[in-house]
């Protein structure tokens, strides 16, 4: 945990630094608000103790500047001339707490403990929001606007959707948006990567099994269809599913009921199925590896997700989005991307699409200096 102490009195800076360092915290100091703001631009701090009366930039101005920077630090204001109105004003402006001089050891440690819990809660909330709600689709290109428009029209219905796109284009993002904007959004959203499950286990994963139905079936197991009851089931890479599993999926779509492996009992399910593939399913049908009747059941609505090379005008927005996301998750500081470097990223061929771009942004954040330059792109990307 990293703490910044901002106070013009050296004795207070040193004593607080010593106390908190002895408790195992990483501590840095600044003697005025201007210096503190410069340090915060370069580093992330979990807690900032800031004196109110200081030269150059006083504590209230520093508080305004820090909160306007959108940092997650818990800011604790310190004053030797505390008044209730001043404390209330600090809290209104975004301070986490307000403590008076002379500083009490226990009060400092309790404040840090509380601030630590608050910072942890903020980070956990952000991660949770990203997982549940933060799946925004970034881009203003005509092709992405067309995808958004399709989602807005289709999401409120129960129509089955087939999402087609190359690896790394964000097909799962489209599926999540379809669920979040639907009347089923409060119900389960279950993802299944059909390519990642061995063919001998796919039926058990999708439809469940009864205890003793096969050697390793030591207990009853609900499949993904049952888990998604009332909500949405996303079948990713459905083109890799075995023909026998395809037949069972077809039955569920037709009859809205299934039977677990090892059971003849029918279980009724209410599930919206969204499927995705990077394959040309019509070619797979011609080869005999995909059922034509299942294709028609799945493709009531087809959404084509463009490759990154087909929407290069979105790259600057995506770079900014990924940089903010990665810095938020890792604690790294954002970097300015020089115009020449950005143009080189735009001109690059992106065979790995959005996934590749995110990896490149993370690599550049780790390896570049204070700015991301054309030389950085040449050395670490091209």
Q: Structural class, judged by helices and strands?
A: alpha/beta
CATH superfamily placement of the largest domain? P-loop containing nucleotide triphosphate hydrolases
Number of strands: 14
Mean pLDDT comes to 88
Question: End-to-end distance, in Å?
Answer: 37 Å
Class of the largest domain in CATH?
Alpha Beta
Overall radius of gyration:
27 Å
Low-confidence parts lasting 5 or more residues at pLDDT below 50? none
Total individual domains: 3
- Helical percent range? 40-55%
CATH topology of the largest domain: Rossmann fold
CATH architecture of the largest domain: 3-Layer(aba) Sandwich
Instruction: Report the major sheet.
Output: 5 strands, parallel
Spell the H/E element sequence: EHEHEHEHEHHEHEHHEHEEEHHEHEHHEH
Portion of residues in beta strands equals 5-15%
Strand order of the largest sheet: 2-1-3-4-5
């Amino acid at each position: 945990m990293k703490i910044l102490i901002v106070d013009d009195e050296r004795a207070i800076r040193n004593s607080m630094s010593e106390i908190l360092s002895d408790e195992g915290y990483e501590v840095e100091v600044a003697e005025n608000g201007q210096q503190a703001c410069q340090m915060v631009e370069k580093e992330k701090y979990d807690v900032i103790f800031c004196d109110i009366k200081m030269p150059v930039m006083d504590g209230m101005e520093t508080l305004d500047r820090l909160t306007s920077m959108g940092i997650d630090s818990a800011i604790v204001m310190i004053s030797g001339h505390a008044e209730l109105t001043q404390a209330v004003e600090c809290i209104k402006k975004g301070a986490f707490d307000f403590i008076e001089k002379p500083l009490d050891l226990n009060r400092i440690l309790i404040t840090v403990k509380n601030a630590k819990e608050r910072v942890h809660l903020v980070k956990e909330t952000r991660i949770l929001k990203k997982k549940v709600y933060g799946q925004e689709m970034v881009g203003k290109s005509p092709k992405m606007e067309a995808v958004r428009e399709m989602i807005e029209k289709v999401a409120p219905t129960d129509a089955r959707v087939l999402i087609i796109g190359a690896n790394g284009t964000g097909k799962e993002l489209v599926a999540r948006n379809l669920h979040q904007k639907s009347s089923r959004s409060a119900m389960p959203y279950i993802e299944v990567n059909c390519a990642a499950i061995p063919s001998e286990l796919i039926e058990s994963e999708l439809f469940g099994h009864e205890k003793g139905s096969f050697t390793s079936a030591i207990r009853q197991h609900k499949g993904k269809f049952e888990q998604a009851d009332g909500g949405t089931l996303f079948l990713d890479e459905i083109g890799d599913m075995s023909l026998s599993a395809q037949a069972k999926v077809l039955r569920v779509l037709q009859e809205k009921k299934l039977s677990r492996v090892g059971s003849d009992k029918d279980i009724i399910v209410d599930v919206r199925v969204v499927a995705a593939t990077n394959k040309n399913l019509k070619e797979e049908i011609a080869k005999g590896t995909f059922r034509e009747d299942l294709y028609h059941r799945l493709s009531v609505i087809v959404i084509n997700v463009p490759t990154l090379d087909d929407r290069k005008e979105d790259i600057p927005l995506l770079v900014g989005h990924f940089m903010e996301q990665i810095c938020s998750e890792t604690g790294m500081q954002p970097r300015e991307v020089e115009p020449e470097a950005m143009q080189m990223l735009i001109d690059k061929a992106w065979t790995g699409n959005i996934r590749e771009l995110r990896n490149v942004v993370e690599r550049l954040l780790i390896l570049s200096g204070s700015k991301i330059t054309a030389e950085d792109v040449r050395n670490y990307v091209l």
